[in-house]
Amino acid sequence: MQVRVLITAVLLALGACGGSQEPTAPPTRNGGAVATTPPGGNPGQGTLNGKVTFVGKPCAQASGPPCDGPYPGYEVVVFAADGITEVARTRTGPEGIFDLTLVEGDYVIFTQAGPMASNRARTDVHVARDALAQVALRVDTGVR
User: Phi, psi (5° rounding) for residue 100?
Assistant: First the structure.
């Protein structure tokens, strides 16, 4: 996964060196994906970029999930459109951000949406060829 992240970063950096570029849309509030076309890219592949935030009560201890805000070290698991077949996984960086290069297609990401591990929110994502799909994910345990 680290190699994919590095390759994606290099491709995006190289693409930014030439010509003008359309501005990248920020992640949407409802967790939907926004696709824009970056310069260059690999045929048949696109990039999924996202930010994971934690919603919960303020906490005084350093262990466990963070308090409200970016969720560093969160494991993002991407499934095929069936919601069962795992396609990729990665961890968020210090600011809760992740990047993956995926074959164009439809994907699903689940995040916790309640006090039980079985309470999950589903986020559908479409990754287009030579495009950047951005998604905002929330992890909410319901504890306030």
Answer: -140, 145
